[in-house]
Amino acid sequence: MNYYNYFTEIEEHFVRRRGKHMYVSPLDWSLIATWKESGIPLHVALRGIDIAMDGWFSKTHRFGSKVSTLFYCHDSVMEEYSRFLEAHVGDTSGATEGSQDSAPGHHKTPADEASAKDAAAKFVSERIDEIERLSAKQYPGETGAEDILRILERLGEILSDLRDETKVNLESLERDLGILEELLISSLSARVPQETMAAWEEEAKRELKIYKKKVPKETYEKIKKNYLRGKIHGLFQVRELSVIQL
């Protein structure tokens, strides 16, 4: 998977196929995150969007009618992913792991590797600075911020490793950051006022109401979780610990 472009390429492709610029909603971004977590390769997601939009434009619609949400494409994306998995049954090359690198015509050059390493190191360094500012603001003089200190310590180790290595394994880095992200969210969630969290929960339920019966319960819960995660990051003004956000 191309960790740098997964979100933005899906967003741009959907907006382009829709035929009119629009801002992708936080819930749409949560859906993209759910696709990524499910291991859906970028090219499969894009193909699913194409199929859904081709179906839309093949029908007669009232003038000015537009697809307003990426959820319209979800079923097509999942169907394409099922076909993708069926086509790769028994394939041990790693093609089913959501790797953009397995797509035809994609070859990493030394320059690509160096660029990825530098970008990853810059990203981790910026997150360290960000979390240090967060710590000073949210935990001034406290000794109970063990989770934050642990996150900073591990990020420092990751940054040191990145600077020493000649290339970066983005999938391994994403797994490491994912563990720290869960720890960060757990720590910050405890700082969110109960009434604020309740309001976010109601907002997510309201926005997702029409889709609740259209997606599996597990998918619905993942989308809602990702939506709340985005709210927490926004409240504390700290970016997600995930290189796919680069």
Anisotropy-based shape: globular
Radius of gyration: 20 Å
Give the total of beta strands: 0
Task: State the end-to-end distance.
Answer: 13 Å
Number of helices: 9
Question: DSSP strand (E) fraction?
Answer: under 5%
Poorly predicted ranges: 92-106
Please estimate the helix content: 55-70%
How many separate domains make up the residues?
Answer: 2
Biggest β-sheet, characterized? Answer: none
Mean pLDDT: 82
Q: Main attributes?
A:
single chain, 246 residues, mainly alpha, 9 helices, 64% helix
Describe the structure.
The chain has 2 domains: 6-102, no CATH class; 110-245. It has 9 helices and no strands. It has helices at 6-18, 26-37, 42-57, 74-87, 110-138, 146-164, 170-189, 194-208, 217-236. The protein is globular. The two termini are 13 Å apart.
Write the SSE topology.
Blueprint: H1 6-18, H2 26-37, H3 42-57, H4 74-87, H5 110-138, H6 146-164, H7 170-189, H8 194-208, H9 217-236
In short:
By secondary structure, the chain is mostly helical. Helices cover 64% and strands 0% of the residues.
